[in-house]
What we know:
The protein is of the alpha+beta class.
Amino acid sequence: MKSSCVEALKGSEHRPSRRSPKGAVGTSLTQGFAYVAELDGNPEAGFGAAEQRSGSWIAWSWGTRRMRRCVPGITRFFHEVLARQVAARGAWRVEARALADNDLALRWLGRLGATERCLLPGYGRNGEDFLLYDWTRESWNHVPFSKAAGAEAAATDTDHCRQGRAGARSSASG
């Protein structure tokens, strides 16, 4: 049986708990989507997007050395699922940062349709330079709002009842 990262994508939607003692402090970092790509039963990449403030999101990812084998599946999943989920939540801007000398990450952001915006000198914890990329509502040619969000997301304060927990096969796994 051939290994496939696409079949092993697992994810969840995160929303803040009203009972959380952290309250509003933790809210900006706990709202969003998180996915793990597995290869041969091992987590090889994590990725997702989180709302920083109303309409402004940050995309993130991490990966092992074997992540390269998962990139094609993650890219398809980004276009088919994650970008639509974020658009349905009313995002107008999504930012991503990448180490300036990480050619693989920079090429991947380009393939995902992100626009390079600026250099962030000394942004890394050890003084490394990063590049800021983004997607804006206008640049989401591949994610039509009507298809991405459905009629319920046209309102500015969507209740998100139909978001659910999504994976590559749209099935919940325990």
